[in-house]
Automatic annotation (TrEMBL):
This is Pectate lyase. Its cofactor is Ca(2+). Pathway: Glycan metabolism; pectin degradation; 2-dehydro-3-deoxy-D-gluconate from pectin: step 2/5. Belongs to the polysaccharide lyase 1 family. It comes from Sesamum indicum.
Length: 497
């Protein structure tokens, strides 16, 4: 008979092992909505760019229709909707024009239009109908537009609910003040054609996030746009500058993001992608950064990446003072068809920077440069697959578009007015008129089983429970040992007799 203490020790060991295996299974190091093949997404972006460029060249070569094709730039996002003279009558077509990892961002497509008629932001708990704060907290999908030019000076963070499009086309819309735009545990948000600037930290107050939920918010960082635990996000044709922290930060397991056609200027730490080197879920972060202009007065983080896969394609890096692209914790950096213009400072010519890591650690990181244009002594230090150049490339989709970077980024920033925030911006006020919202009811249902609920400071995150198989298997092994031991005693007694 096996000694009882051996059985007990064996069971305890098995329970511990089962719990460890179970915990490892629960800790999913990837995100449920990340793309299983990020390289295919990068290839699709290049194909769309090349297709738009080819179409532009073909039409311009035909004198009869060349006058009708001047709207074509080769930028597949803009060419998707800007060539339609009646785009204002079909605003929601914009949602069909995204590319890259944020391609599936629906925003408020299929929902009713909500017209912003009041630029005030007096009450974060009971926002006035007709204000932007009242629009973005609604539960149903909404396509939000603006009746007038307006400056919206926020009292505190603007907490945006899922399935919303903030569409500033046709008006000069400026968002500034305290907290600025926060996307926390939401999905399917499009932010298009707005100025975001002079965002300051705020908080320690109650803020409404939906018609039925009010929560306490701690102090915010002062980001222009903060993306926290969210997915299917598209930020397009915005101008961002002069914020306290980042212009765009995406952290805590955010993924499926496209940041395109924006104008970044006058800021230190431009863009942070990834929460912390040890935060493993950010390994599933996937971000497309395309057709942006990184303009005057920028210092660093364009972006600064932790883990994840970042496709940086056809951007114009006009200025940096320290570096353009940085990272840590082995992110994949796929840089294609960009123009990097180095500063005059001879110590800041390198595009890349590995943060707080020695070469022995980062030599295997997959950082690659393909078809980039280096100006004024700029140089990109590749590593991993980028150094060996052994990753798969299809000749039909090589990034030959870098030579057209002026054309592809010519409209980066806000359309229909000053592209950037270098002009003298208003500090508040704007057009104010009270009025009811234009259609804040109806809409559609969320069809993808959205389980990201809004969580405020002090709220509990989604609870992950350990799998029941550890306890079940422990009982099973005890039962087997018990039966085996008793059976062995019976047989042994018979033989001895």
């Amino acid at each position: 008979m096996l000694p009882q203490n051996c059985i007990l020790l064996f069971c305890l060991f098995f329970i511990s092992l089962s719990s460890f295996v179970g915990a490892t299974g629960v800790l999913n190091l990837t995100l449920p909505h990340q793309h299983p093949d990020p390289e295919s997404v990068a290839q699709e972006v290049k194909r769309k760019v090349n297709a738009s460029i080819s179409k532009r060249r073909q039409l311009l070569a035909t004198p009869v229709i060349s006058a009708q094709s001047q709207c074509l730039t080769g930028n597949p996002i803009d060419d998707c909707w800007r060539c339609d003279p009646n785009w204002a009558s079909n605003r929601q077509h914009l949602a069909d024009c995204a590319i890259g990892f944020g391609k599936a961002a629906m925003g408020g497509k299929g929902g009713q239009f909500y017209v912003i008629t009041d630029s005030s932001d007096h009450d974060t708990v009971n926002p006035t109908p007709g204000t932007l704060r009242h629009a973005v907290i609604q539960d149903e999908p909404l396509w939000i537009v603006f009746k007038y030019n307006m400056v919206i000076k926020l009292k505190h963070e603007l907490i945006v609910n899922s399935y919303k499009t903030i569409d500033g086309r046709g008006a000069n819309v400026q968002i500034t003040g305290n907290g600025c735009i926060t996307l926390q545990y939401v999905s399917n948000v499009i932010i298009h054609n707005v100025h975001v600037y002079n965002c300051m930290p705020s908080g320690n107050t109650n803020i409404r996030s939906s018609p039925t939920h009010i929560g306490w918010r701690g102090k915010s960082d002062g980001d222009g746009i903060s993306i926290f635990g969210s997915r299917n996000i598209w930020i397009d044709h915005c101008a961002l500058s002069h914020c306290t922290d980042g212009l765009v930060d995406a952290i805590m397991g955010s993924t499926a993001i496209t940041i395109s056609n924006n104008y970044f200027s006058h800021h230190d730490e431009v863009m942070l992608l990834g929460h912390d080197d040890k935060y493993l879920p950010d390994s599933g972060m996937q971000v497309t950064i395309a057709f942006n202009r990184f303009g005057e007065g920028l210092v660093q983080r364009m972006p600064r990446c932790r883990r994840g896969y970042m496709h940086v394609v056809n951007n114009d890096f006009f200025e940096w003072k320290m570096y353009a692209i940085g990272g840590s914790a082995s992110p994949t950096i796929n840089s294609e068809g960009n123009r990097y213009t180095a500063p005059a400072d001879p110590s800041a010519k390198e595009v890349t920077k590995r943060e707080d890591t020695n070469e022995g650690e980062w030599s295997d990181w997959n950082w690659r440069s393909d078809g980039d244009i280096m100006v004024n002594g700029a140089f990109f230090v590749p590593s991993g697959e980028g150094l060996s150049m052994q990753y798969a490339k299809a000749s039909s989709v090589e990034p030959k578009s870098a030579t057209l970077i002026d054309q592809l980024t010519m409209n980066a920033g806000v359309l229909g007015g000053p592209r950037d925030n270098s002009i003298s911006m208003s500090s508040g006020g704007g057009t104010t008129s009270t009025g009811a919202s234009g259609g804040s009811s109806g809409g559609g249902s969320r069809g993808d089983g959205d389980y990201f609920g809004m969580i405020f400071a002090g709220g509990a995150a989604v609870k992950e429970t350990s799998p029941p198989n550890a306890v079940f298997l422990s009982f099973l092994i005890i039962l087997i040992l018990y039966v085996t031991t008793n059976h062995g005693d019976a047989d042994g007694g018979g033989l001895n007799d």
